[in-house]
Each structure stands twice: as C-alpha cells, then as structure tokens.
UniProtKB/TrEMBL annotation:
Keywords, sorted A to Z: Metal-binding, Zinc
Membrane-crossing residue ranges in chain numbering: none
Identification of the protein by name: Protein yippee-like
Species per Swiss-Prot/TrEMBL record: Cylindrobasidium torrendii FP15055 ss-10
Entry GO MF terms: metal ion binding
Domain Yippee: start-end pairs: 13-110
UniProt entry tagged with the keyword Zinc: yes
One protein family per Pfam: Yippee-Mis18
Protein family (similarity comment): Belongs to the yippee family.
C-alpha cells in the first residue's frame, strides 16, 4: 500500500487510538454515543481519519442487516471499529458512510 502519512486533527477534544495515540476523530464529528461495539460501548462518527478499511462483510446486528468494513489504525493496525457501507433497513440508512469507534479503544489525546 506504500507509505501512509498521518493526519493531525485540531479542536477542543480529539480521540486517538489507545495503542499509539494516532488522531482518529474530533468530538465535533461525533453523531451518537449510544452504540454498541464488539467490546461494549461505541460511538458513531461522521468522519474518522488515519484508518484503513478492510473487506466489506455482511453482518446482522440488533438493528438489522448491514454491510460493514472493519477499520484499522493506520499505525499500529489495531481493529478500532467498523464503517457502515450499506444498511438494508430504510430506517438505518443514515448510518451509511459513517464510522463506529469502540470506546475502550479510544484515548483523549487533547
Ligand atoms: Zn494505533
């Protein structure tokens, strides 16, 4: 994949990877705290940086069937959550293109 350079975010509150503190998202792009990930509570974000997307995969969740791609930290390769590629239920369409980050895998970097 070649060399990845990391982007740095600016703002009041920045969430980073708990493994290596790479910047991932700001509080301004957070949509909801009321999500559940693989390891407990998770947050939904409009935008996340410095992640690599895996292969799309169909998964059935409590809110119905979705196509998602796992997302990995560009630096330490930790699986941080996933991106919603497609939602089959009309009521879940708002999640398409948005990102889930697991709360336990985030640290405040600022
Ligand atoms: Zn990391």
């Amino acid at each position: 994949m070649g060399m990845c350079y990391r982007r740095y975010l600016a703002g009041e509150r920045i969430y980073g990877c708990s493994g290596c503190k790479t910047h991932l998202a700001t509080i301004h792009s957070m949509i909801s705290r009321a999500f559940t990930g693989q390891h407990g509570r998770a947050y939904l974000f409009e935008n996340v940086v410095n992640v690599v997307e895996g292969e799309p995969d169909d998964r059935t969740m409590t809110t119905g069937a979705h196509t998602v791609s796992d997302i990995y930290c560009v630096k330490c390769n930790t699986t941080l959550g996933w991106k919603y590629i497609h939602a089959y239920e009309q009521s879940q369409k708002y999640k398409e293109g948005k990102f889930i980050l697991e709360r336990n895998l985030l640290v405040d970097v600022q």
